[in-house]
């Protein structure tokens, strides 16, 4: 049973857009998971909507209780900010519900360790590097303050994080290409979900 649909891919591969499209499709009935962060709430954000905003002690307590499924720690100028997914009851494999998660390859491995890979359906989105870089630059140009250095850093970091060896080690065998029309890619994923998640 593939109760958890796990979307992943390099930066600007289109995963946010695909995640939104699939999670808004009522017919699929995929439930979103709210992650946690120790970074402060920004204006316009609301507790429980973008994230559950918690302090470091809460993160440590959940860690001690072995309730953290995957965690990423970033050394920022404001100190260490943690982003994590916790086993807080949002995912209940016995409930018959389906879930949709977006994350890194490392997070996918952690989900497999925690829940067992038979419960997770990996959706790996792939876009040719040249096309992906152009889309990333275009998206950045639309920002008020484009950060091209960060874009380049992520592009290079992704080449390592999503190396062919890492993809193979994670047991990812199927890739969903998003080089052409967005709807074609989403249709292919919908078809795969019908076969593998709603079998
Ligand atoms: N098939 C497509 N054709 C054209 N543009 C696309 C297509 N798919 C996605 N895009 C665009 O590419 C850009 C990157 O998509 P998106 O933000 O969803 O990527 P992402 O993988 O979530 O990136 P990141 O990890 O950097 O946040 C967006 O501007 C999106 O609208």
TrEMBL record:
Keywords: Kinase, Transferase. Coiled coil: none annotated. It holds the Pfam family Guanylate_kin. Residues 2-194 form the Guanylate kinase-like domain. The keyword Transferase applies. One of its GO terms (molecular function) is kinase activity. InterPro entries: GK/Ca_channel_bsu (IPR008145), Guanylate_kin-like_dom (IPR008144), Guanylate_kinase_CS (IPR020590), P-loop_NTPase (IPR027417). This is Guanylate kinase. It comes from Lachnospira intestinalis.
């Amino acid at each position: 049973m593939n109760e958890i649909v796990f979307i992943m891919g390099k930066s600007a591969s289109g995963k946010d857009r695909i995640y939104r499209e699939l999670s808004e499709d009522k017919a699929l009935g995929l439930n979103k998971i709210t992650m946690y962060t120790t970074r402060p709430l920004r204006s316009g954000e609301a507790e429980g909507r973008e994230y559950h905003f918690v302090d470091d002690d809460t993160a440590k307590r959940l860690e001690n209780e072995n309730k953290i499924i995957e965690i990423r720690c970033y050394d920022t100028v404001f100190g260490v900010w943690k982003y994590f997914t916790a086993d807080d009851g949002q995912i209940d494999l016995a409930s018959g519900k389906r879930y949709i998660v977006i994350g890194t390859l490392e997070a996918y491995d952690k989900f497999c360790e925690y829940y067992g890979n038979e419960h997770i359906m990996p959706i790996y989105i792939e876009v040719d590097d040249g096309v992906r870089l152009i889309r990333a630059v275009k998206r950045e140009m639309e920002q008020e303050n484009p950060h091209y250095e960060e874009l380049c850093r992520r592009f290079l970091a992704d080449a390592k994080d999503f190396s062919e060896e890492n993809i193979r080690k994670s047991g990812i065998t199927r890739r969903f290409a998003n080089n052409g029309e967005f709807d074609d890619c989403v249709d292919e994923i919908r078809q795969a979900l019908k076969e593998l998640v709603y079998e």
